[in-house]
Amino acid sequence: MNSDKEKIKTLEEELRLCKKELDDSKWGRDKTSQEIKTLYADLEKKSKKLDDLNKELESRVQDRTKQLSEAKDELEIQVWALDKTKKGINTLYNQLEQKNNELQKLDQLKNDFIDTVSHELRTPLTPIKEATSLVFEGLLGETTEKQRNALANSLRNIDRLIRIINNLLDVSKIESGKIQMNKESVSMAELITDAISNFSTQAGKKGLQLSSELLEKDVKVYADKDKTMQILVNLISNAIKFTDDGYIKIFLIEQENCMECSVADTGYGIAEGDLTKVFNKFQQFGRKNGPGAKGTGLGLAISKGIIEAQGGKMRVTSRKDKGAKFSFTIPKYTEQKALHEMTNNKIALACEIGEELSMILFKINNYDHLKKTFGQDKAREISSIILQALKGELRSGEFINEIAEDKMVVVVEADTVSIVEVNAKLKHVIKKVVFEIEEKPPINFSYGNAIYPRDGSTVDDLLKKCEGGLTNEKAERLKKTIMVVDDEPTIVNSLIRILQETGYVNFREANDGQEALDKIIAEPPDLIMLDMNMPKMSGYEVVGRLKENVDTENIPILIMSGYEVEIEKLDEYIKRKAIPMVGKPFDLAQIKRLVDYLL
Fold it and tell me: How far apart (Å, rounded) are the C-alpha atoms in residues 282 and 422?
């Protein structure tokens, strides 16, 4: 088509040139009439040829237009078909989604049914077992040997029924994703040793050798201790059940990020074709006819579910009549792993209920110096004592993790307002430990806190905020105000000088009880060092007045006296506060320790 257009364009150019020549007056005068006729004849030929080409081009355009029209019609048909297919797919998708929702509802109904029925069955089983045990033990009267045999059989079947119910509950929880894991640092070596001791008698009765091959070092895993023991019990029990002679051995192997535990036996084994079905529910292989221990075929399914819920994997290798080897892995314990998982769980809960969460980081500033002074073991002991003391102050759902030898992180349910009080309480716990240890050099520490979601939405964000905002407890303490109250100015001056040498800089003083009370109420200090025998108002009365005032009741007080303090003059509330006392003449080291502790 492009070549036709070029030909037409060429002819049109030739015609234009011819016309130009005819219009040239000089050229027209010099040419003869014959030449003009020849020229016009040639022009007519070319004009006819041009008409023919135009007709041919028009015919081709019509053909092409027809082809395009047919293609358009075909495309519209295809679009229509695709649209119809899309609607069909959408309809099928909606039906599939509806069926899936129905299946989920049915699955939930199944789980609810199992849960309800299991609980309803367990409730009467408890008194049935208790009553049967009382009769079996003869506590409700004498029984014959036949009766005791029947009762013993009943007790075995009651226990079996309880195990079946518990297994059904476990399977239901695993399938619904509601199984609860109480993860902690767990010694696999200790679990294996305990499990073997529980089965040594049973294995011995069948003449089986039950042993273990453990590591020289004790590597901790991050797992639910009770549920991991449940897995070991199930695997060892199965091995004993399906092994008539030979041995059962438990191996523990350390891998890069996890520990692998294997239970191997020389028993019946499992056929190759059945290996893929071993972890399915209600499956049993190698079970022989006749009397003996029976099961529900749920143990391995439950074990696999528990392992996977803890971030591990479970597998089996076996050959028929050549024994079997069940292996599972559990992640190694690290403080960082535990901190991240537990904190993320708390963050998810806080996000769900729209509440704030607080993280507090405590750091022992002179830990390296403590190691050099007392040795590694003593330094670790001090850190452990502080960790346990802080743990004892936490409520249910709150936790503490040691993320380094000199650092521990506390996660508590506290918001922007209450975190101040929580900080003060936990700081006091550490200071109490420091006070009781009486080490020289003294332990000093820093602390920092972060609030979720104000200061970050991830564990790393909160840790970064804590690290970046550490407050040195000693530096903060030395800025606090101490009021010294004594009717002897020389004692006041002496105490202030002693504390200034320690690093304290802010002091106030008073020389009688009334003056002290007025100054304290007007501007409460951070600590009161109070003599008990003063003019105008005794120290006993000052203490009583301060504890009656909501603005001053929590100010720490250090009682000073050259006489025996009359405890009976302090009411019960004050006694419960356990106000420390020092006698005169002063033990300067004791004064410094008490002031550091109270502030």
Answer: 51
